[in-house]
Amino acid sequence: MINFILNNKTISTDSPLGITLLDFIRKEEHLTGTKEGCREGDCGACTILIGDLIDNKVKYKSANSCLMPLGDVDGKHVVTIEGINQDELTPVQEALVDEGGTQCGFCTPGFVVSLTGYFLTHEAINPIEAIDSMNGNICRCTGYAGIKRAAIKSTSLFNGLKRISTEDLVNKKFLPDYFLEIPKRLIELQKLRDKSKSGNGLPDKRVLVSGGTDLYVQKWESLIDEDLFFISDVNELKGISIEDNRIKIGGATTVSEIENSPILQQYFPNLKNDLRLFGSIPIRNRATIGGNIVNASPIGDLTNILLALNSTLHLTNGKSKREIFLKDFYKGYKTLDKLEDEIIAAVSFRIPRENSFFNFEKVSKRTYLDIASVNSSMYLELSDGIIVEVHISAGGVAPIPLYLARTREFLLNKNISDEVISDAAEIATSEISPISDARGSAEYKTLLLRQLILAHFIKLFPELIDIGELV
Amino acid sequence: MKQNFSIVGKPVIREDGYEKVTGQAKFADDYKFLNQLYGVMVRVPAAHALIKSIDYSALKNLQSKIFIFDSNDVPGEKKIGLIKRDQPVFCYDKIVTPGDVVAMLVGEDEDELRLLARKVKIEFEQLPVLSDPTKALDKNAPLIHPEFGTNLIVHYPLRKGDIEKGFAKSESILEETYTTPHVEHAYLEPECVTAIPLEGNKGIRILGSIQNPFSARKMVALALNWPLTKVRIEQAELGGSFGGKDDIMCVLSARAAIAALKTNRPVKIKYTREESILESYKRHPYIMHYKVGYNRDGKIKAMKIDILADGGAYASMTPYVTWRTVVQATGPYEIENVWTDVRGVYTNNPYTGAMRGFGSPQPIFAQESIMDEIAIRLEMTPDEIRGINGYHAGSITASGQKLEKHDVNLLSVIGTAVDKTNFRSRWIENKNKNIIKIPTHKIKNKPSISSLILKKDEFIEPSNLLRKGIGLAASFRGCSLGAEGIDAAASYISVQPDGSVYLLCGLAENGQGMRTTYCIIASEVLGISPENIFYLEHETKIIPDSGPTVASRSTIMGGASVKIAAETIRERLENLLYLKWNIPPHENLIFKNNFVYSESDSQKKISFPELCSLAYGQAINLAALGWYPGPKVHWDEVHGQGPAYFTYVYGCQVAEVTVNIGTGEVYVDKVTAVHDPGRVINLLGAQGQVYGGVTQGAGYALWEEVDKHEGFVRELNFDQYLIPTSKEIGEIVPIFLEGEDIYGPWGGKSLGEPTLELTAAAINNAIRNAVGERFYNLPINLEEVLLKRKLRPEDLTRGSS
To answer: Span B361-481+642-787: which CATH code?
Structure first.
């Protein structure tokens, strides 16, 4: 039995915890404004908002209900389009109508939810971010022009306002007033939560679900009747901290949390921008760093970044702990150096030293919301112009997320020069074993990796390189 | 002729906006019926196979009651089809493409049915698979439908002038081949339909995501062997179609109807995205050879065109799609000598049919690319070469039709597009920058990887990595169906005693905003606000068959019928007022702002509701049916000559791109779309068509492709079938040049398809301008730009692996 609030209604249900929230909403609650378009988190027609109680305040985020197991909303507030509707259209809805932001209308509720969610999750409002908030929603009719205008128009209602609160949103009719009571109601609801399901170590033999953003794409049908354990509820596995000169990220930390972490922004100012190429906002809100690592996709963006930071994994089975370098974790295609009962408690890497540089490159067929053809990250430390430390990763060019060991060896203790870079790129292409697949032929990927290695240096050291000399 | 409109041409918000932004609009899967069952399909894992036997024994002794339907349960025609009856409701002797369905399981639990469907054992014998359309007409090619004795679906010749003499007189000749891929409509709503048996002998009600209710009615009646009257099709709110919810919905409606009648319970079929992409039809891939003879002065003397269209497993709309191609294949250029052959053939690939553009985006991609190539060879700009050859009033088309009785605005739309974008100087400037060549790699059969690595001397300076390009494309397009079909539309209007109005047209709302357009037209005639008009749900039982909602014919045909219906009512009201006010007939009465008054005597004034009430009191009929038959058109099948369409629209788009020649990435920075759609009825809706069409066209240019491997489709969902997101395409600028026409409502014609058909060609020309290389195959994705070839992997794995 789980309890949660769906829009303004408290729900207690014995439905299987593994069914998707989308099916629960549509089939059991008969709320049909949430649509099923792809069932894999690519179209956004099923977008909902999840409100979670953190320090007695409710924090909302958007999510794809098709990839979200019902069990994961225990004690939370779930908002569908019906929970946003009021007697009159909200400013977001009105702007979409006035600006021609809806045609066939199938994707429209998802856009309304995403954009409304933007106001609910951001204190400072700006039009570009508002448009960005809909990057997980696909529309085939409108060409997005009217939708973008509507986003800009809705933000204009908050011009000059530095911070907006739920009260402001209720006053301006963006949200119905029941939202004001949600914190109180969630506090009550959380008292009902079954404590055995979270904390206190790990359960045996249960199927672990982290963000579910790939697991539920691959096999949602088979998860319905499984005994699931939801890692995202385990607070010990969350958070970003600095310990012993290392940045430590809990295994259940989401990509959005990483994106918005002040610690990471301080040391990796470009990371937020890099992660804009990682899925969509609703996916980033759910996908976790541990899931990304264990999923072992050769083309994962986070693993690619973490490899170049020479990260260490902290594994635990609840009783004992163990550490291993991420670059040693992958043994073969989807084969891990991990015991069945082990989970990733955290990932850590050294705080970048002074005179260090980091860069991430990704090329995909479609720039946004697409899996990379090839990605690559590089971390590099310089001392008196000499490379004293360097780690380079390459994704999509081997059965595993690849750490380019030979390229590193070659670059160590060298000056950055046109010759060295060019040779490094050649060496990198000799370390890989790409296959031809949907995202590119082996030949193309090889070419691309070389280009990305060069791009690292061109971006980081434009003044040190005279590419013209290479000609 | 300048007209003073109250509302026509202004931006009007959608009449269904409220329901759509609140999520209350009910799409097909949002309906649930008491005792409803689900239908789930059983397929064969093959592209071409004889069905030996089907073993359902795994479905015996189940706790839940499962009904099984296959071809034996089809009471009427086993094979249906809108043009050619070649598509089985359920396949019986053989399957001809992997989407084919041999049986349907019906029961209460959809998820259980999906598991059970995998347990049905089908014994089949693989047949040779024909997936290359160029081999379809070979003597030893496997026959997809042996009963026809050939894989040729259709062949349209067009002969004008003397082609050989034309080439002989030409100073230069250019020959090129272009190809385009299968493309998925990618409507956001997957297919869904429910059939509900009606009590007694009343027939069946079918409610679904159906683009063309009258087509579905015809096909269901055929499969049931019933009169049309007993099949009642209702359109649910349609979550996008773009031509895609026609044949597939006919078949699904028939399957649902058969099961519903047998079980006497409502039966719903709802497709997942994967099933949708697997079974539904696609845009035709084309292989297009063009041979063009031209002179130094830029005049094109002769054009020989040979086009092969992959029709896939079933004929579907191939005969009509390819007919539009043959009419328009030369593009909007007056050429003395033309020799065109367009053939459509069967293969084991997914079947192909109607999709927004309908046989025009493909030849436009080829012909507009070639026009630029000729311009470049003659050191002309793209607009110059088009100015020399482009249609003007009185021009004779390839099919011998004289363009008259409407503004032939081709050169105006090109001129406007060129001026607004400062096209000429930018095109020349970009072209002159293309001194450094994009590194090319000669791909042999099996290249070694090392041979593909850029050599040091091939390295490109970072400042040269990003190249800017600008390109244009222009087209003419025949409005409505042309000589491909019977062309007429009906509208029903019923004014109530309080002045509120019911309106319904026999054409169907597919999301494009047609209902709003019709409300505007009726409002304009009756002088009332569109809010006073209540648009009725589309049901085949209450409105005459108006043909399919295709060919950008909603405004020109349906709109004209709405205008006729509204004018009929207005005339009756006017007659009443002539008597009441004792004024001579034909004195001008003004219908405006919900009032009616005499132009000469403003004292004679009555509110619209009062007038309606008065009319009811006098037993005047305030309901009317408007009927608009299309003007006569004609086609000579042997020579491909005749007045193919009764009127045309013109458009020109300019695309601006940035190409990263290191990675092959292409960014669309801006598209300026200048169109003459005739009279614009709803400015907001018209602009929406442009934004949407251009964006789809950009997807067609750069990413969209359904690849098939021995008939099997790889891109079954949106992780692999990539359509543009909100962040992909830069600014789109719609500009309308409203040409006059005697047809359609106040000259309102067509826009939906012209917006899409030009974009890929314009982008290709812009890429050419940016990198100095011509690309011949869509989509122009990363690998095409960098390596000039299409990816054809054997690997069919999916997911983020």
So the answer is: 3.30.365.10
By the 10 Å C-beta count (0-12 exposed, 13-18 middle, 19+ buried), B76 is classed as: middle
Task: Judge contact between B233 and B214, C-beta under 8 A.
Answer: yes
User: What residues of chain A lie within 8 A of the CB of B24, using their CB?
Assistant: 33, 85
Q: Give the pairing of strands B121-126 and A330-332.
A: unpaired
pLDDT digits (tens, 9 = 90+) for B59-103: 998 899 999 999 999 999 999 999 999 999 999 999 999 999 999
Question: Which range is least confidently modeled, B446-455, B648-657, B785-794?
Answer: B446-455
Using a CB-CB cut-off of 8 Å, the residues of chain A touching B794 are 436
Q: Output the DSSP codes for B592-633.
A: ETTEEEESS-TTSEEEHHHHHHHHHHTT---EEEEEEEPPP-
Question: Is it the case that residue A470 has pLDDT exceeding 50?
Answer: no
- Per-residue pLDDT, averaged over B31-46, amounts to 97
In the stretch 494-553 of chain B, residues with CB closer than 8 A to chain A read 510-513
Nearest by Cα to B480 from B322, B320, B684 = B320
Determine the pLDDT at residue B435: 57
Cα–Cα distance, B274 to A188 (Å, whole number): 42
Q: What is the CATH number assigned to the segment(s) B488-629?
A: 3.30.365.10
In the predicted structure, residue B443 carries a pLDDT above the cut 80: no
d(CA B345, CA B163): 25
Q: Does domain A234-471 have CATH number 3.40.1190.10?
A: no
Q: Which chain A residues touch B793 with a CB distance below 8 Å?
A: 436-438, 441
For the domain spanning A2-190, the CATH number is: 3.10.20.30
In chain B, residues under CATH classification 3.90.1170.50 are: 31-127+191-270
Question: Phi and psi (nearest 5°) for B339?
Answer: -135, 105
* Residue intervals in chain A for CATH 3.10.20.30: 2-190
Q: Are A74 and A197 in contact (CB under 8 A)?
A: yes
The per-residue pLDDT for range B234-249, each reduced to its tens digit, is 999 999 999 999 999 9
Residues 381-420 of A with CB under 8 A from B: none
In CATH, what number does B31-127+191-270 get?
3.90.1170.50
What is the location of CATH 3.30.365.10 in chain B?
Answer: 361-481+642-787, 488-629
* Distance from the A246 Cα atom to the nearest Cα atom in chain B, whole angstroms: 30
Identify the helix (H) or strand (E) that includes residue B719.
none
Q: Is A455 on the interface with B (CB under 8 A)?
A: yes
Strand order in the sheet with A246-250: A240-243, A246-250, A343-350, A312-316, A321-325
For the cut 90, the answer to whether the pLDDT of residue A242 exceeds it is yes
B586-624 CB burial, b ≥16 within 10 A, e <16 = eeebebeebbbbbeeeeebebebbebbebbeeeeeebeb
Model pLDDT for residues B597-641, shown as the tens digit of each residue? 999 988 999 999 999 999 999 999 999 999 999 999 999 999 999
Residues with Cβ within 8 Å of B64's Cβ and at least 6 positions away in sequence, in order, are B107, B108, B109, B112
Q: Amino acid identity, residue B377?
A: R
Contact A455 B662 (CB under 8 A): yes
Q: What's the pLDDT at B460?
A: 56
Residues A447-456 have pLDDT tens digits of 899 889 988 9
Rounded Cα distance between B317 and B327, Å, is: 16
How far is it, in rounded angstroms, from Cα B222 to Cα B88? 12
Distance CA A77, CA A84 (A): 13
Q: How far is A86 from chain B (nearest CA, A)?
A: 9
Name the nearest CA neighbour of A449 among A297, A298, A326.
Answer: A298
CA distance A452 to chain B (A): 9
DSSP code at position B190: P
Letter string b/e over residues B747-773, b meaning 16 or more CB atoms within 10 A of that residue's CB:
bbbbbbbbbbbbbbbbbbbbbbbbbbe
pLDDT at A159 over 90: no
